[in-house]
Amino acid sequence: MIKKQWNQDLKAIPFLLPFFIAYVIFTIFPIFKGLEMSLYEWTLVRKIEFVGLENYVKMFSDVHFWRTLWNTTFFVILTTPAMVLLALGLALLANLNTKLRTFFRGSFFIPSILSVSVISFLMIFMLQPYNGFVNNIIQMFGINWEPMWMADRGLAWVTIVVVTLWWTVGFNMILFLAALQDIPASLYEASEIDGASRWDMFRYITLPQLIPIGRVVLLLQILASYKVFAQILLITGGGPGGATRPLIQYIYEVGFKQNNLGYAATMSYALFFILLILSIVQLKNQRSGEN
């Protein structure tokens, strides 16, 4: 029996081998190569010399590293709770038994299939000062205010957060919607017979059933938010005055503009360990909650 099972497993190797080779080349190898690069002075052209932990010592005293790390963390704080709550609300709306259900699902999800360049340039067009769509709407209501969306620090953060929520909420909504549809209808029928109100059903049936997927959405959103880069680069360029520059943008600038791939790899590993620690903590909390 064991030999037969072993023979069946061997038959699967030719089908798994192409993926395994690609996974090693494009995932495993870069991990160890990046670790090597962080220990060297390394340019875009060649490896220069071994510097040991010098890059890591430099990172801890780098003001720009800590500032961009705070900007990234601030973005996570702004977007993560809002994303989870908004995705839940839209999923509840898309799950209603109405004629507009298909419209809700499509309109909420469509922005998430657009590329970041399309989303970014659309927002730049809409938020231009003086002749932008949003500013024209403000003027139509007689409000004597000309907001500079990308030039003011507070408004720049508002712009980035709103754009990110609108662009990415569709995926998280789908996760919540799938979990809502997995809740047995018999639970609601039994509670309705017992005289439970809509709020009671939501509080004691819907929310507890959504806790597992809610934890998944929370973890995915934290990881995705810490890796924010493209929309900020295209919309504000990290400005004004570096106020919205995230860590990955700084890593990009150090590596490809300052020609210092070794130090860029060091900061990349710092971000990697931050995400690893957050993932471990979240998974442990999830297991303790299940227990």
From TrEMBL:
Membrane topology is:
Multi-pass membrane protein
- Transmembrane ranges, per UniProt, are 12-32, 74-96, 108-127, 155-180, 201-224, 261-281
Tell me where it resides.
Answer: Cell membrane
Q: What is its main location?
A: membrane
Do you know which Gene3D superfamilies this protein is assigned to?
Answer: MetI-like
Q: Cellular component GO terms, alphabetically?
A: plasma membrane
The protein's matches in InterPro entries, at most eight in alphabetical order, are given as: ABC_transporter_permease (IPR051393), MetI-like (IPR000515), MetI-like_sf (IPR035906)
Q: Which UniProt keywords apply?
A: Cell membrane, Membrane, Transmembrane, Transmembrane helix, Transport
Tell me one GO biological process term. Answer: transmembrane transport
Q: What is this protein called?
A: Sugar ABC transporter permease
Organism lineage string = Bacteria, Bacillati, Bacillota, Bacilli, Bacillales
